[in-house]
């Protein structure tokens, strides 16, 4: 119960930050990493969108090296990468076992990937369509959990 209360407090804090500061998107990404997802061990976050040509490109990031940002400048919605799967399947992609990452997503080898224990991405609902995706890397193993999924979806909806 205290874990749920802690998540609720994080959501309320994020809402207060949004409404009191009206932050630019890059500051919002920073706040989510450093405050909202801090206790989970988050260290970077991106928001990417699918354009009409079928490519996915980051629109806001926090915590990535320039090499990583340059590497992910544009990817295809047809590739076997987590962001494309999240958009194609309208679902979470939750990678918490490093051995599975490159086996399940061989196209990741073409990109500069953050050294993370867990990577989670999921589609964001915007104007009735899932055309954007959010991704977060964590420095510890976080196993899939329905309550956490709800927490992530609420945060991304804000």
In short:
This protein is of the alpha+beta class. The protein has helices at 2-21, 25-36, 66-71, 82-89, 98-104, 146-157; strands at residues 42-50, 55-62, 75-76, 93-95, 118-126, 129-138. Helix 1 (2-21) runs antiparallel to helix 2.
Fold and architecture overview:
By secondary structure, the protein is an alpha+beta fold. The protein is 41% helix and 26% strand. A hairpin with a 4-residue loop joins strand 1 and strand 2. The mean pLDDT is 86.
The total of helices stands at: 6
Average pLDDT for all residues? 86
Q: What is the rounded distance between the termini?
A: 23 Å
What does the oligomeric state look like here? single chain
In terms of DSSP E residues, the strand content is 25-35%
In the predicted model, the low-confidence regions spanning at least 5 consecutive residues are none
| Tally of strands | 6
Strand order of the largest sheet: 3-2-1-6-5-4
Structural class: alpha+beta
Main beta-sheet annotation? 6 strands, antiparallel
Helical amount among residues, as a percent range? 40-55%
Query: Shape from CA axes?
Result: globular
Return Rg in Å.
Answer: 15 Å
Question: What key phrases describe this protein's structure?
Answer:
alpha+beta; 41% helix
Layout of SSEs?
Blueprint lengths: L1 H20 L3 H12 L5 E9 L4 E8 L3 H6 L3 E2 L5 H8 L3 E3 L2 H7 L13 E9 L2 E10 L7 H12 L1
Antiparallel strand pairs: 1-2, 1-6, 2-3, 4-5, 5-6
Helix pairs in contact: 1-2, 1-6
